[in-house]
Here is the input.
Amino acid sequence: MGAAYFYHLTRRPLEATLPVLLEKSLAAGWRVAVRGTDAARLAWLDEKLWLGDEAGFLPHGLAGGPHDADQPVLLTTAAEAVNGAVCVMAVDGAEVTAGEVRALERVCILFDGNDAAALDRARGQWRDLTGAGCAAQYWSEESGRWVKKQDRPAAE
Here is the structure.
């Protein structure tokens, strides 16, 4: 049974935080789906990932290509990850279900703490997922480093 990890971004933007989490996921042997809500925003994020540090090449693809199923990291707006992902990273308020949290190794919800609407959406997702009995952790970077602020075990 997996857990939902909420990442409250206040100091570094998504395009700086996401590659770090993706590298850790790939190092764990996980395939990842980065789920967004807007194809243009994912295309922008795809470009940022390609322009990242050359020493830390991050293999990934944007959904809609001929090799989606082969991508270790797939950026997509779809609810179903065709790349066999065991981790979903939801960005920009993308929907995540309690069933996914239970079925996957991990679900990461990254949200911009400087955006009131994103903050409200993440709070709603926390209530929905923990209310459904999912394990969840809340991580904040407001101190300058990532600190776990809350840990909610799965309900039995």
The mean pLDDT is 94.
